[in-house]
Predict the 3D structure of the following.
Amino acid sequence: MRSLPGCLAIGLAVVASCGSEQVIEARRSVVLEGANAKLVVDVLGGSIVDFHIKAHGLNPLRWANEGPADEPRSMSHFLCLDRWGLPSEAEAANGMPGHGEATKVAWQVIHATQTSVHMAADLPMAGLRVERWLEIASDGAWFRAVETVTNRNKLGRVYNIVQHPTLGPPFLDETVVVDSNASKGFMQGGSMPNPEEPSVRWPNALKDGQAVDLRKLTDDHDPAVVSFVVDAPIGWVTASNAGQGLLIGYLWQSEEYPWLNIWRRVESGRPLARGLEFGTTGLHRPFGDLVRKARVFGRPIVEYLDTAESSTRSYIGFLAEIPAGYRGVADVLVRRGSLQIHEHGAGSSLSVAIPPVLWSEQR
């Protein structure tokens, strides 16, 4: 079994407390609440559908939240497991959905407190079980997630796991700026055996040979999906809306999640969705193509679990209030006891306090 990451020096303390479910917007939900921030998890599909600073009130994670109250489905920040992208034609004929089954089943709430929850879901076709521990800061604007995937099949199998945070209006508009420390990338849609050609570097992409800046989205979402590797030990991505005074970001270890996939969607000439998707693969194809290709830019694009084997990964999500005229994020550094968020240019430096035991200090 793969151990918890070295920088995650303490486990999540989970107190046995049941009866934590609430009904939010007519859906079964679990609510985690600290002094400064609130997080809502949808039980039917396991999506994180709300994460906001209580004094501010704006939820950046609002996408596809409207729909039937009794249907498991993908919303806001959802989990792609056992795959990212489409199944093969034969798998689809047998009922496998795109992005896997994690959002198509009801999750079990095992234990919960006001600030933490232990949940799990069994994926019947994939033969995988995922357990998730979520904890929101008692006095800050961040949350931590730890997820363990276990292969319950009698045989080993390939799989992928991708976090799919999705931004939507009213937070998402034409002024939102997305930043990351991603590096080399490529546009999805290329042909095998070299779909990564031509390559680009963050934040650039290409459309018909012309440069596209992925930091902003206005009235054209092409190229819709661009995937990048992260070279630094710790990967990060942020989205800031200066007009609304709010920034959301994610932080993870690139050893666990080597890829960042940027998805963009425009409808009626306005931004509808921005996916800030970090995970174990950067190739949006069925497993057959992934196994044949194996690596892109030297990074793996498919994972393997032997029978009864488990793998654990973690990440942090955070929020920060920003001043008017904020120009976006140049860097996010992990220092003892805080995340230091540095603005582009000679701008401000923000700090999000986190316990120093969570992440080893960057040097």
